[in-house]
């Protein structure tokens, strides 16, 4: 296990944005045989209620850029002073180069500012803080912009009740700086690679090889796209969708995550009663309360162990802890915030942070009309399609613009 204490690193500000489109679980009653009592039971036990989802044409980088612009504006940050950009993402814009370079350009950062992507899931915010704190503690960097963004709802089959009701979308920007005054933060990070296949997009990378020059490969893809399976839990899913083994994930979470929380408490020489707020990754209400109880906290204390972020915004993966922080009451003490995130890998990352002087901005809605990162011509109008247009029409136009842009780019007709 990687344990570390950093004493010259401060978290200056956090900005979290969510899509404006909201889905209410009661509006999906048709998927539960119109049984409102069944939905009531799920809401009480698991916390299903509302979630924020992106338009089908929204990329995670759009949310990350918007969160960063909001943070830079609200904190009046001198962009030339940022010397590193770390973008934590599971869904990059392209396989190569790193999407961080695209974001670097759109934010107008200095050539002296390094930029890179990190592939990480739900633990990504705490994991990113651990990495960035290491960079600053080393003395190499002084001011780092950490970005996290995820859009798990995009492309998800709405009828897949194993996945669709759980996830929401969000983007987060965090400014971390060198501090002359001592500020202690404690981290404990663990990896359990045996969980590699428990939360996975099995057909998204090079292990499932597609030869774009072979028609037979496209015929195979078309066939697999239609294949449906009945999962072990009884839910139906398509073969080519992301896979989540709920039993294995729950077992890992209940057994390993509380141990990780207790380890960071011991490392920081603290006890449960010393902690102001336990900010857990918002997997769902049931998991939040179960982990809190197993780690020795009062899971019924909604102030000290909040879960409202999941109820109102869904599990927005690596952005769920920043979302939780943004929802805290202004009078909540923040000297000792214990953040613990966990998920695919498996990985768990826990930290005790001093956020008393951190500027935590209120959640801000992201609207497609506010996109600042388009490359294609005429895309502003396309992103403002009226609400009656279907996602398929929007996606078709989005792709047409993207394809035409690259046709012209490759032919030398675009010289910018």
Structure report:
With 416 residues, the chain is of the alpha/beta class. The chain folds into three domains: 2-194 and 245-366, 3-Layer(aba) Sandwich (Peroxisomal Thiolase, Chain A, domain 1), CATH 3.40.47.10; 202-241, no CATH class; 374-410. It is 31% helix and 22% strand. It has eleven helices and 18 strands. It has helices spanning 36-45, 60-75, 99-107, 124-137, 215-225, 246-267, 285-294, 308-313, 320-326, 379-383, 391-410, and strands at residues 2-6, 9-19, 22-24, 50-52, 84-89, 114-118, 143-150, 170-178, 185-191, 199-200, 228-230, 236-238, 243-244, 277-280, 337-343, 347-353, 359-360, 364-366. Strands 2, 5, 6, 7, 8, 17 and 18 form a seven-stranded mixed sheet that branches. Strands 1-9-16-15-14 form a five-stranded mixed sheet, with helices on both faces. It has a two-stranded antiparallel sheet with strand order 3-4. Strand 5 (84-89), helix 3 and strand 6 (114-118) form a beta-alpha-beta unit. The N and C termini lie far apart (47 Å). Mean pLDDT is 91; it is low at 370-388.
Average of the residue pLDDT scores: 91
The succession of helices and strands, N to C, reads EEEHEHEHEHEEEEHEEEHEHHHEEEEHH
Low-pLDDT sequence parts: 370-388
- The CATH class of the largest domain is identified as Alpha Beta
Which structural class do the helices and strands define?
alpha/beta
Largest sheet: 7 strands, mixed
- Counted up, domains total 3
Label the overall shape.
globular
Q: CATH superfamily name of the largest domain?
A: Thiolase/Chalcone synthase
Helix-residue proportion: 25-40%
Task: Count every helix, treating DSSP H or I runs of 4 or more residues as helices.
Answer: 11
Seen as an oligomer or otherwise, the chain set is: single chain
Alpha carbon gap, first and last residue: 47 Å
**Rg, Å, rounded:** 21 Å
- As for the CATH topology of the largest domain, it is Peroxisomal Thiolase, Chain A, domain 1
Beta strand % = 15-25%
User: Under the CATH scheme, which architecture of the largest domain would be assigned?
Assistant: 3-Layer(aba) Sandwich
Structure summary, number of beta strands: 18
């Amino acid at each position: 296990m990687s344990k570390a204490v950093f004493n010259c690193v401060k978290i200056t500000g956090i900005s979290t944005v969510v899509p404006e489109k909201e889905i209410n679980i009661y509006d999906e009653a048709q998927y539960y045989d119109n049984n409102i009592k069944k939905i009531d039971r799920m809401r009480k036990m698991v916390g299903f209620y509302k979630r924020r989802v992106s338009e089908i044409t929204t990329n995670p980088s759009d949310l990350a850029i918007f969160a960063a612009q909001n943070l830079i504006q609200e904190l009046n940050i001198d962009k030339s002073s940022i010397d590193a950009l770390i973008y934590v993402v599971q869904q990059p814009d392209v396989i190569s180069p790193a999407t961080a370079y695209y974001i670097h350009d759109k934010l107008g950062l200095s050539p002296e500012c390094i930029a890179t992507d990190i592939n990480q899931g739900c633990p990504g915010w705490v994991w990113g803080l651990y990495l960035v704190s290491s960079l600053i503690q080393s003395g190499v960097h002084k001011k780092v912009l950490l970005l996290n963004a995820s859009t798990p709802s995009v492309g998800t089959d709405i009828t897949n009740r194993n996945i669709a009701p759980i996830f929401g979308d969000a983007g987060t920007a965090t400014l971390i700086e060198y501090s002359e005054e001592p500020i202690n933060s404690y981290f404990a990070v663990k990896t359990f690679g045996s969980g590699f296949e428990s939360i996975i997009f099995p057909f998204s990378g090079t292990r499932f090889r597609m030869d774009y020059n072979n028609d037979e490969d496209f015929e195979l893809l078309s066939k697999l796209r239609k294949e449906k399976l009945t999962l072990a839990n009884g839910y139906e899913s398509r073969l080519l969708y992301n896979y989540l083994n709920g039993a294995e994930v729950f077992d890992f979470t209940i057994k390993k995550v509380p141990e990780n929380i207790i380890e960071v408490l011991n490392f920081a020489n603290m006890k449960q009663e010393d902690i102001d707020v336990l900010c857990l990754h918002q997997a769902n209400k049931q998991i939040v309360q179960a982990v809190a109880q197993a780690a020795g906290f009062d899971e019924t204390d909604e102030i000290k162990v909040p879960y409202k972020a999941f109820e109102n915004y869904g599990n927005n993966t690596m952005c769920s802890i920043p979302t939780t922080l943004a929802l805290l009451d202004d009078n909540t003490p923040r000297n000792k915030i214990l953040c613990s995130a966990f998920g695919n890998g498996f990985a768990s990352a826990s930290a005790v942070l001093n956020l008393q002087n951190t500027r935590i901005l209120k959640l801000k809605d992201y609207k497609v009309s506010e996109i600042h990162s388009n490359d294609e011509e005429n895309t502003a109008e396309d992103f403002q399609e009226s609400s009656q247009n279907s996602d398929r029409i929007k996606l078709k136009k989005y792709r047409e613009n993207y394809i035409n842009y690259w046709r012209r780019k490759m032919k030398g007709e675009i010289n910018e």
